Amino acid sequence: MSKDEYGVLLYYKYASIPDLNSLFSFYHSNCNSLGLLGRVRLSPNGVNVTVGGLLSALEKHIEAVKSNSLFEGTDFKLASCHHPFNDRVALECGFTSLSIRVVKELVTFSSHPLLKAPEVSNAGRHLSAFEFHSVLQSAGQFTKNGRPTDDKQLVLLDARNLYETRIGKFHAPSVETLDPGVRQYSDLPSWIDDNSEQLRGKRVLMYCTGGIRCEMASAYIRSKGAGFENVFQLFGGIQRYLEQFPDGGFFRGKNFVFDHRISVGSSDTNIMGTCLICGSSFDDYSSRCRCAHCRMLVLICDSCQKHHKDIGSIPSVEDSEPEAVLDQRDLKTLFSDSILSSQLPSRYGNVPPRKLRILCLHGFRQNASSFKGRSASLAKKLKSIAELVFVDAPHELPFIYQSCMKSNSSCPPSSEHAPPPENCRRKYAWLVAPDFCGKSEADWKIADQPFDPLQYQGQIDGFDVSVAYLKKVFSEQGPFDGILGFSQGAAMAALLCAQGDRLKGGIDFRFVILCSGFALPLADFEQQSLNRPSLHIFGSDPGKDRQITSHTSRYLASRFEDGCSVIVEHEFGHIIPTRSPYIDDIKDFLQRFL
To answer: Is 208 a catalytic residue?
Structure first.
């Protein structure tokens, strides 16, 4: 390689950084003096660097970095390439300037806003490119040194995003390959949670572009304990593997990279990708076509970009393929910098960014209509980021009125205590008392005792009926990103959280918002802590919520694992506050899931 050639340098290092300011100053001074452009990310736990410049300058940078003992053992991946010739691509990839930032995480590990990142020291064992290749080549055999080589127990796991795997991935005929098909890396932990049984007891071989994503992901798998110990990762990622095996080896297609090169291939010229519109072989992301719905890169060939032919009759992709993430509705929203939405047929229109869909569960003796009315201000203030969906609970309650309990002459005639003659809106509940017999034939009945503010503690039946009903709601009206529950609705939502994997596939949601919530004395709450992201909103001490006391709601919040709950206390009563700063706290919580 000529030192006057242009090149790209990638490296990362997980290490405890004692002085971030000093390291920031080093990168600012060194990269600027050498004319390097690109991205430098610093965190208390290490660095992640992708920069470009003359090869001679990049080599000087490597020497300067190596002089710091923090970077001992760092794998510097240096490659010669063409100078960025597409300004738009270079700009999007961050190669028109030098960007140095201090961040919380080197790579955003999870969209779960409260999930603690695993300890990278627990990451899977590194396999060199040659070792990785040998394992795939000799699948079906065992070796004495403990390397994973039993094809029946071997799983190949791709830790990259869907748009990356569309143009290239590993394929070993004797090895099961798992492609999570995630839109972004932060979705991978959820996929691992949902598919952990496919990994349990297996020897897992992981790979990604350069290695950094496997560090966290392998540590997360291993953190699950027994049955998840044997996790291995390709050291240096696909890039090092293709350097070792220039013919591609077991890798098919191209390696997507996050710089102006866009992708790097082997001597094998076979194309894996296909145009999303016409289905022709195509793997060039240089046009930067994106789905307007989720902003993910998509493959649209040059011809279809010019003519948009048959765009209205694109068939849905096979269910067995990860491309199913883009359904018929999504395809209608495709556009890119080079395919402006105004150029598409007008019948498709412009689709706004996706909002969170939140299922709202009302309180005891309420209904969807009344809860929707009471939550109108909340819905209005969240309308740009969330859609609230309201449903009635399945247990219909009789109407109750209170008769005069006093025997003195001041008690008006009983006729004045009769309920209104016209029918009122039906009232419902998610949970009922053990002696509940259902709605009686009569519309109204007299309460058999004065109102008991602690009656909610005895409403512990009817959960199974409500679960079956909600499964139907999720099937017919879902999917939903989260559940918002008020009072008894919050107790119901918390019980759903306590079910864990038992409701997987029937009632799936990412978070809960529990307003004036309480925990019921049921085994599900007594036996385990809950790890669902949760926002708890309730009145503060002394508070004015006369139905659900603050210590009751605070106890519910304590049932969620440390780091999984956010608490918002307000000075009002049995309501959901929508003025600042409370609405800002609610928006901050929801923004993490967008």
So the answer is: yes
